[in-house]
Every structure is written in structure tokens, then in C-alpha cells.
Amino acid sequence: MSGNKTNGHLRAFIERVENLEAEKAAISEDVKSVYAEAKGSGYDTKIIKMIVKIRKQDANERQEQEAILDLYMAELGMVAASPED
Amino acid sequence: MSGNKTNGHLRAFIERVENLEAEKAAISEDVKSVYAEAKGSGYDTKIIKMIVKIRKQDANERQEQEAILDLYMAELGMVAASPED
Amino acid sequence: MSGNKTNGHLRAFIERVENLEAEKAAISEDVKSVYAEAKGSGYDTKIIKMIVKIRKQDANERQEQEAILDLYMAELGMVAASPED
Amino acid sequence: MSGNKTNGHLRAFIERVENLEAEKAAISEDVKSVYAEAKGSGYDTKIIKMIVKIRKQDANERQEQEAILDLYMAELGMVAASPED
DNA sequence: CACTGGAAAATGCCGC
DNA sequence: GCGGCATTTTCCAGTG
């Protein structure tokens, strides 16, 4: 009665996840290919990875800055006063 | 200057990697959505993850087994027939 | 033969790890206390955490930049030439 | 403005947190050193980690048991005498 | 009080 | 085969 027909649902969820993860794995392969190609062109993989990493950090940082700005503004909009007392 | 034109290549490599990683991130989001949906249907996310994990392990083991089988067959002078499913 | 007396060593290693992790846990408690105190002084914990996070990100970024600089310098010191042949 | 002098407090809080987290990071390094040393002595890091984990679980269980015991004793009207410390 | 989001830990993977 | 790295997983505080 209660949950039997949901077994099909469970199976569907699992398959969807597995398909998505297969896609992810394929893309990871592509990334590896790009690095291999870059190395084949004489570039140092390590450096490329580091550049990618730094650029990602930059993006994160920007996001964090905006997040804290939002926090500040919310804070100021709410209390607009000194925290203590 | 010898290799200036390769700068364009470097940039291209970096962008390709970044695009691929963006795709990966998007798919990861999709996976999260599926889990959220499953949870909304009353399933325990943790259990589904375990099932997915186990099935992946099984797949890995299968592949290993097949690889070993291929090795044996090659050893015996028999070419492993078309592996595909 | 060889490894019997090392049991004592194993025990010693485990205890060292456990002691260190106990210290870490204690410090985590201290951190929590500081946040509690700050909140008691009217500060928003969330904001403080975010500031700490951003400052840590800044530090990381600096480190990454230096790391890549080192990489570049090593690269240039080694080959000092265009990447592609 | 009312609360300007609290900026110093905020700064102090932040620095205290950062110092504590630096200590934590240092201790984490120490833990890594211990594991490296253990590996250098021929031990398998993974196994040691498992042992540490199990012992921690045991400790947790013990605490739970003691907590339950305390509950029972409180229920019975007996104050759980200070076990130690 | 269950859920979300984030920090810390653990696992697995990749390149050397 | 090992160390480093990325991803995953787990734990916990905060929140509605």
C-alpha cells in the first residue's frame, strides 16, 4: 500500500544520478585531454592548473566580498547603530 | 621573441578548462537537485548515495574481472572479442 | 623478529595523535568561546566569521600568487624559452 | 557615534580567532608529522587512522553510557557523584 | 526540530 | 608506489 510503487521512483532517481555522474566523468576526461594537449604544446601543466586555481579563487573572493557587503548593508538597514548596548 | 603567439594558445587552454569545469559544476548542481527531489519524495538521501556508491563499486569490479579475462584470453592467444556489452 | 618491539612505538604514535587531536578540540572550544563572547558584546557572529574567512582567503591568494611566481621563475630559469619547441 | 570604540573590540575578536585557528593549523601539521614518522617506521598510516577513529568512537560510546547512567541515577534520586574533575 | 549551509576529515585519484 | 590534490562525506552550528 504505502510505498511499493515508489520503488520505480527510487530506481529512476538512482539512474538519473548515475547518468549525471557519467556525464561528469566524461567531462573530467575532457579536462584531462585539454591538459594533455597543452602539455603536448609545450606548456607546463602545473602552471596552467595554478592559473586556473587562482582565477577561481579570484571569483570566489569577489563573491565573498559581495556577500559580506550584503551582510553589512542588511545589518545597517536593520539597526544602524553600535553593536554593543 | 620566439613564442608570443603561444600566449593565445595558453589562454585558449585555460578557457577550455574553465568551461569544462563550469559544466561539471552545473552537473553537480543537477545531482544535488535530484537528491533534493528524492528527499522530497520521502527517500533518505544517505541511503541512495550508498546504493549509487555500491553500484559503482560493482561496476568497477566487473570491469576488473573483464580486464583479467581479456588478459587471460590474450595470454592464450585468443583475441578478446568486441568488448562492448 | 624485527617488528615486535615496535608495538610500543605504535602505541606511542597513537597516543601522540590522540593528544594532538585533544589539543585541537580544546582550541576549537576556545574559538567557540570567542564567538560567544563577541555575540555577547553585540556583534553578529556571521559577519565576524565572514571577515575571518575573507582574510584567510586573502592570505591563501597571496600564497598562491607567490607559488605561481616561483613556478614561473623556475620555468624561466630552466628553459627561458618559448613553450612550443 | 555611539559605538566607535567597539571597533577595537571587533578587531580583537578577529585576531583572537585567527590566532586560535593558526594554532589549530600548527597542530594539524604536527599530526601529519606524526603520521609521517609512523610511516617512516613502517606502519600503515591508514590503519593507525582507523585505530584512532575506533578509539574515539569507543570514547564517545563510553561517554554516552555514562550520561545514561547519570540519567538513571538522577531518576532514582541519587545525584551522580562528581566522577572526577 | 528538521533543514541548510559551511568547516573539517576522509577517501580516492592523478601525476611523477 | 607515493605524495599532493580534488572531491566527497560527515559533523555541527544556525535558522525557520
Strand content of chain A: under 5%
| Rg value of chain A | 24 Å
Structural class of chain A: mainly alpha
Shape of chain A: flat
Secondary structure blueprint with pairings:
The structure is a homotetramer of 85-residue chains.
Chain A: H1 6-40, H2 45-78
The structure holds a DNA duplex (16 and 16 nucleotides).
Structural overview:
The structure is a homotetramer of 85-residue chains. With 85 residues, the first copy, chain A, is mostly helical. Helices cover 81% and strands 0% of the residues of chain A. Chain A is built from two helices and no strands. The first copy, chain A, has helices at residues 6-40, 45-78. The longest helix of chain A has 35 residues, at 6-40. Residues 1-5 of chain A have low confidence and may be disordered. Chains in contact: A-B, A-C, A-D, B-C, C-D. Chain C binds a DNA duplex (16 and 16 nucleotides) through residues 28, 32, 45-46, 49, 53.
Name a few traits of the molecule.
2 helices, 85 residues, mainly alpha, disordered N terminus, DNA-binding, 0% strand, homotetramer
